[in-house]
């Protein structure tokens, strides 16, 4: 066997996926498998075929996700442990949230979400410190904060889910049913998307911009919670009692999150362009290079578009079941269509006309406002069939 | 037609049209629009179809062009895209390869066979399927991955066409066409379905529609109503739907939890009737028709009301029986009135002021109009059970002159037995002249300082004022005084009369209590005092109440009606596959980008010349990274 072949053999081994897995990867796979198996063994009698399918594929995709994006493992484990802990602190009803120390200050959904809010805001500041102070360390801290904020957000939702059942078995439901809950969802999804690209492109300089949007969401969340005490769990109106809600809403918010990300990247793009025109050597030049920003913008709009398509279609299927028609030109539906068409046009411009650069960046920012209207404005200004989140 | 500019223009145009439709509320009653825009603009907007944008001619026109443009686009691109996804570009020339930005060339010592072997291993290793081509002088190995993205393109765009066409089938474009041909015109009168003329009826052969019908418990319907323009159309069904029972389940907090109807479908084609319960999110699909739980309303509840006279007359209430939805002619004080009962509600769940609980139930209520002989009517909302306001209980009766207004409430206080009797007794006493005269002379309000003749006159005046008070309240009294008394004395006279009137009312109240058998020798307790104030206030405002009777809801039999939506949408069969294609297509397009590699091998004088090249039309940055890794890999293997 000559040198070429040995070298080749070596490469083949190197690259083969299974061989490339570390020990921890296997441990991870095993843990998730164990969890999934346990859940299946315990709850299979209560689940229909779909739910079994969902459980299994959820397990599988979590393993895969953890293998391709290592940080997810830490996140999932932290969320898992904290949530279980939080849930276990509820022994005699919701009232515990007031008396139990841990619930009161850490893991009741309310407190967890307060933690999330605080951490996101801190992270935003820290990211900017990192940007202006050109401090790598501050950057690392900011990422860590963002990760923990996201963890607390997930914990908040998980525990809230449980709390809804503590109110009453018939009240219990997945916490994606009103504006308050989806704002949390929006924050953590946007954060996750950003964190993914942060690792992919090894740049923390964008963090501040993206977290700005999240901080805005948090600000709204807090106003909404305290001014309109929207934080307390309401039972579902009949129209929302549907399986579709569970997938329609999250899919939608992956879309919104990605569009938000794209818009903030667009902002960064503008800033960097200005800096280059003034061929400054300022902070702005520490932002990623223009072609990277452009590519990132395209990627997140593509992601958003894909999931928004999915969400809109799921919505149509749901509407067919709840309202008696897959499309009713209800304002919310219509605005979803508008958002969708807008980004379809964006993609075409980029793909077929080869548009790049500032106009596309501007368009991405405008796109966010259109999206924002579809997401909030409709509930505020237009009346329709969508039965949640009146402001 | 297939041009991108047109496509994008269409996408934008469609968005703008859609926005218009959301800004102006669609398919409202025409009268609302007239009020909003005035007759002129109403007509204009009507002509451009702004009240139903999404089925207006120009909107359909845009859609039609989008379909056309997308189709041509597919027609143009699909063939070579589908070819591309299978083609390996094996006739590419060395020059082209060397010109690619991602390309590199080696001079190698290894035998041709080895290098070729390496290539054929490394390409698949990186997910490229490879094709070998041996020409005289050179060997070309062409690799490709992500061919599916081209298929994605076709699927996505084909999906658009499917969905639009399906949507057009299910939209009411067909109805519009029929109307233009004069075969159809909406019915605007409020008449029973079976009296609606043929021109406004659609028979069961109509293949696509979406109508709604409200069916009282226990009865059935074989038609449904399609809202259309400023009226409706009657859609006949090949079967009849009976609502056996309608239920609203409530959460502990009182909010509604589910709406359900037990349906019975009777169809000559069925050997026995089909029974099924539907609820929100759980429709019944029968023979291509989908039947949904859409809403609910009152189905003609039987009501028993007590009519208490508010102007002097009989002491006893009159019992009235009517139904929600009925108009009941009555004769009150020789005047013809019509009682139009519009709604009955079993629960009135309102946000609670009491912080410990979120909601409170104010109990049943009835809503009705009282129409007098001139045709004017006020609308009333009466609650059946007394409602607590700052610790005291009242019968609430809301009044308004038009639906645009909020209800203004009359607070009728209740006695210890929570009955309305004391209030009515007091009211009647105030309109009972002999009694008033007796009390006036007994009490002798004016004291001694007046001659008996004047006193008698004064008492008469008091009695008139009392009557005036009952008719038009304290304001009326004061107005009256201001008319009759000369300016200089006005102030003190007014004060005198008002004070005395208060005493008068008090005395009458005491008299009522005494007749009730209450011991008033030691005065009256706070509750009774409060009752006096509330009752006097209420009576003071009866003048504005506008109805000669107070209708007290005494008992009822609740009948509900279930609001069903019945739809037939064959377009589904295009739209749903279209949706599947769209999702699949979009994900393929984004996440399986097409990428190509070539390995060009030719034997040079001392070994092998090996040119590696790669090309991608999309995600060039990612591809470059990947290419560089592969190139490095070759380097390690072949020169390492
Ligand atoms: C509602 C209508 C349409 C939607 C939602 C739509 C959607 C899309 C999407 C998502 C892409 C992929 C973009 C990317 O990969 O980044 C795309 C690409 C494309 N679309 Fe459309 N499209 C529509 C109408 C049209 C029309 C009318 C045309 C014809 C002029 C057209 C021509 C193209 C072309 C040529 C591409 C590039 C394909 C490629 O090179 O991979 N599209 N379209």
Describe the structure.
The complex is a heterodimer of chains A (391) and B (640). Chain A is an all-alpha fold and 391 residues long. Chain A contains 15 helices and no strands. In chain A, α7 runs parallel beside α8 (109-132). The longest helix of chain A has 35 residues, at 243-277. Mean pLDDT of chain A is 90; it is low at 387-391. Chain B starts with a helix and ends with a helix. Chain B has 640 residues and is of the alpha+beta class. Chain B contains 14 helices and 26 strands. In chain B, strands 14, 15, 18, 19, 20, 21 and 22 form a seven-stranded antiparallel beta sheet that branches. The chains are: A mainly alpha (391), B alpha+beta (640). At the A-B interface, α1, α13 and α14 of A face α1, α5, β8, β11 and β24 of B. Protoporphyrin IX containing FE (HEM) sits between chains B (2, 4, 7, 11, 69-70, 73, 77, 153, 156-157, 160, 586, 589-590) and A (302, 305, 344, 347-348, 351-352).
Average pLDDT score of chain A? 90
What oligomerization state is this entry in?
A: heterodimer
Which regions of chain B are unreliable across 5 or more consecutive residues at pLDDT < 50? Answer: none
Shape of chain A: globular
Bound molecules: protoporphyrin IX containing FE
* Amino-to-carboxy terminus distance of chain B: 56 Å
Counting DSSP E segments of at least 2 residues, the number of strands of chain A comes to 0
Overall pLDDT of chain B = 88
Coarse morphology of chain B: elongated
Overall structural class of chain B, as computed from helix and strand content, comes to alpha+beta
Radius of gyration of chain A: 23 Å
- The N- to C-terminal Cα distance of chain A equals 74 Å
